[in-house]
Amino acid sequence: MTKPLYIFSGTLSLCLGIAGIFIPLLPSTPFFILSTGLYVRSSPTLYCKVTGNRFVQKYLRDKKGSYNPFTLTAAILIMWITIILASSMITDKIFLFSLLIIAGITGTFFKTRLIIRHYKNRHLTSIKPPSK
Q1: How far is it, in rounded angstroms, from Cα 119 to Cα 3?
Q2: pLDDT tens digits along 55-80
Q3: Residue 6 belongs to what domain range?
Q4: Residues 6 or more apart in contact with residue 20 via CB below 8 angstroms
Q5: Is residue 10 domain-shared with residue 39, that is, in the same domain?
Q6: What's the number of domains the chain is made of?
Q7: How far, in Å, CA of 29 to CA of 130, rounded?
């Protein structure tokens, strides 16, 4: 009974992930991860097809620690410019304004953590062990 529901949900999630490749505001990676998780529970064949696809693999690969700090800084700057422009258009709606500010602070916090982690890891890996 739940197997067809998982397959349907996985296929819907996969379609949204594919659409996210072409639509800039729709994230692809979370939908691909969701679809693989649903396919693992329902159909090993579909799971192997999705994870074996070269386009989907690009989004599922672990990119931990491979963030460019200059790109992240540019993303923070562009995010805050967009928030300022959007908040100037909705000055009378305090709820939306506060929601934008909270989203900006949260995004800045997480991107800054990635930048700090990048420099910390770079510093740790550049230390050479003493030679004997």
Answers
A1: 45
A2: 888 877 755 556 778 888 888 899 89
A3: 2-60
A4: 26, 27, 28, 31
A5: yes
A6: 2
A7: 42
